[in-house]
Amino acid sequence: MKHIIRLVMAAAVLLLFMVRNAHSEKLVQKTIELPADKPFEPFKLLFIADVHRRVIQADLIDFPVDIVIIGGDLVEKGVPLERVAENVKRLMAHAPVYFVWGNNDREVDETSLRKIFDQSGVIVLDDQSVPLFGNEQLKLVGLDHFAYKPDGFGNAFKDVKDHDTVLFVSHTPFDFWKIKGAFSADLLLAGHTHGGQIRIGPFGLFKKGSMKVKKERIELISNGFGTTTLHLRLGAQAEYHVLTIRPKTKVVR
After folding, report:
1. What is the spatial distance between Cα 95 and Cα 92, in angstroms, rounded to a whole number?
2. What are the tens digits of pLDDT across the range 99-124?
3. Sign of CA dihedral 30, 66, 135, 119
4. What are the residue boundaries of the Calcineurin-like phosphoesterase domain, all occurrences included (predicted)?
């Protein structure tokens, strides 16, 4: 009987720990250099993905940033639009906000969600690129992966030139292998996998989020900020990122 009681107590403690992990987050800060034919002023980029049902607290960002990118799944079915509007408002208070669609975002009314974005000034990247800070050679490219458009990549990169410095964002990292040739980028950002969300040691449904510096680019996959289905986390801490981005002399690809 004692063993059963201890087992139940251990399971309860583990469950509470997982709930706590699902409602706390880590700020990950990195400084990176991106190749640039035309130098740009260093800037701070906040990347947050997979907010889902969570509330973004007003004091989450108590430091200056120059740009905010929401990497999809800002919302899911059942989340009040008032909460979404408040989350957006709190992000917009710090810097211009850019958004790409995730697989759960359209579970709410898309027209209403776009209205929130329009009223708040959020820039939705529907398979397109935009110059950053008035620099035509510094581009942010956003892909609406889950619209499943056959010409999505072509539209997203159509205004990107060979010598641009390119930041690419998609909700899913499973697009990363397509970033090559005419669709090359220097920094790749994604969420979606939640780092596996619940991991037993090294084992999980997906790999744990990470930043990988490769020969020609940097890839960041976030564990995400929120959870879905099971609002629990173990071994894949919720996180959001602030990247200080600086230029370096570009190597011809």
Report:
1. 5
2. 999 999 999 999 999 999 999 999 99
3. positive
4. 44-195
Alpha helices in 2-124, H assignment, sequence order: 2-22, 81-92, 110-120
The values of phi and psi at residue 92, to 5°, are -65, -20
pLDDT tens for residues 8-36? 565 565 566 667 777 888 999 999 999 99
> 50: helix, coil or strand?
coil
Residue 250: closest CA among 169, 184, 198, 177: 184
The crossing angle, in degrees rounded to 10, of helices 81-92 and 110-120 is 30
Q: How far apart are CA 4 and CA 250, in angstroms?
A: 63
Phi, psi values for residue 242, rounded to 5°: -125, 120
Question: Could you tell me the strand order of the sheet in which 128-132 lies?
Answer: 128-132, 135-143, 165-170, 187-190, 218-221, 210-213
What is the CB neighbour count within 10 angstroms for residue 182? 10
Question: Which residues, 6+ apart, have CB-to-CB distance to 119 below 8 Å?
Answer: none
Which of residues 220 and 19 earns the better pLDDT score? 220
Positive or negative torsion for Cα 38, 132, 69, 242: positive
The pLDDT of residue 247 is above 70 = yes
Instruction: Enumerate the β-bridge partners of residue 6.
Output: none
Distance between CA 172 and CA 212 in Å, rounded? 16
pLDDT for res 78:
94
Bridge partners, residue 30, by sequence:
243
Of residues 52, 90, 43, 55, the one with CA closest to residue 71: 52
d(CA 154, CA 164): 16
Q: What are phi and psi of 83, to 5 degrees?
A: -70, -40
